[in-house]
Amino acid sequence: MPKLVNVFDYQECARRRLARIAYDYLERGAEDEVTMRRNREILSGLTFNPRVLTGSGVADLSRTILGRQYPLPLVFGPVGFGGLFWPKADLSLARAAARAGIPYVLPTLATETIEEVAKVAGPERWFQLYPFHDEARSKEMIDRARAAGYTALVVTVDTTVSGRREATMRHGGMPMPKSAAFFFDVFKHPRWTYGVLRYGAPRMRNLDPWHEPRKWNLAPSFSYDATFKRLTWDDMGRLRSLWNGALIVKGIQSIADARHAAEIQVEGIVLSNHGGRQLDCSPSPMEILPEVAAAIGGGKTAVMIDSGFRRGSDIVKALALGADAVWLGRVPFYGVAAAGEKGVSAVLNILREEMETTMALVGVDRLSQLGPQNLR
Predict the structure, then answer these.
(1) Which of 171, 189, 211, 274 is catalytic?
(2) Each residue's pLDDT tens digit, 180-208
(3) CA torsion 368→68→274→6, rounded to 10°?
(4) Cα–Cα distance between 102 and 218 in angstroms, integer?
(5) Is 31 exposed, middle or buried (0-12, 13-18, 19+ CB in 10 A)?
(6) Domains, in order of start, for the chain
(7) For 33-82, how does the pLDDT look when each residue is reduced to its tens digit (9 = 90+)?
(8) 274 catalytically annotated
(9) What is the phi/psi pair of residue 219, to 5°?
C-alpha cells in the first residue's frame, strides 16, 4: 500500500492481512449493523465552530483521569481474542500504551495472562472483568489482578447475552472451523497463517484453569452464557467489596443508568454500545453524552466514552461535549493487525497529530478550554 496516513489506511491494511474469520470478528457488528454505522454518522455529522486569532497553535493534550494526569485523554479499551490478529497482541498493546503513558485495559478474554501482561505494561494497567456464575472464580481473577498491580477494575455490563454477530455466525462461531472454505481463505493470507502455525492458535489463557485448552480451538468447552453471570446493580456492591481500587462500569447507554452509577459512587463510567456489536439500533454514546455530562460531569464519577472513534477530530468533539476520556477498541487492533507493535504506536501518533491540528484550527490550546461552544 502507499504511505499509511490515517486510521482507515491501517484498517484496510488489516483487512488485507487477516483471514476473513479474524477480520469479521474484529470489524463486523450485530445484525443489520445500524448501530455501527450510526456511531460514525453521529460523529461525522457534528461540525466545529472554529474561532480565529485566539490560540497559540500549540496544543496541550494532557488530561486528568481518575485523579492521575496523562499525556493524552485516551485509554486502550478491552478487546478479546487479541492473539487472533497478531501473535501476542495483548503484549504489544500493553507496551505501546506504556510508552505513550496511557492506560491499557486487559480483557478477561485476552490471549495472554494477567501476570504476563503486567510484566510489560505501564503502572496504570486496568483489568476488565466478566463476572463468572461461580463467584469464587471472579474472586480468583480479581485477586490475581490485584496481586499483579492492576489499579482499576472495569466491569462490562452491556453483555447480558452475546449479541447476534451474523458475520461470525456464518463462519460457524469463533472456534476455528475445519471447513474447506476456511482452509482456502487461510492459504490466501500466508502472513496471518504463518503466525498461527508458528505460535499456535490463540486461546483465552486466563480461562485455562477451568477450560481445557486444545491446539486448534480458542476454548473448546467455553460457552459465554454458561460461563458468565447476568449482572444486576446489586452485583456492583459485591464486586466493590472484593476490590479496593477504582471501579469502572463500561456499557452505560441511558441517562438513568449513568445517574445510578454516580449515586453508588463508582469511580468511572464508559458510555458505550460495544462498538455496535451487541444491541443493534441502540443509541450512539455521543447522543447521550451531553445530558450525561450535564447530570454527573465534574463530580466524583469520570464520564468516558467509546464506539466509533476513528479520527483525532472525533476525540476532540467528545471532549467538547463533556467526556473526560475516549476509549479506543478497534483502532489499536487495526494497527497491530497491519504492522505489529509499531503499527499500534503509529495509529496512536496519527490520532495525536490529528487532535493537535484540530485544536489549533478550532482555536484552543488546552483541553480544558473545549466546550459545547466549539461545536455547531
Answers:
(1) 274
(2) 677 778 778 888 888 887 887 788 889 88
(3) 60
(4) 29
(5) middle
(6) 7-166+223-374 (3.20.20.70)
(7) 999 999 999 999 999 999 999 878 889 999 999 999 999 999 999 999 99
(8) yes
(9) -170, 90
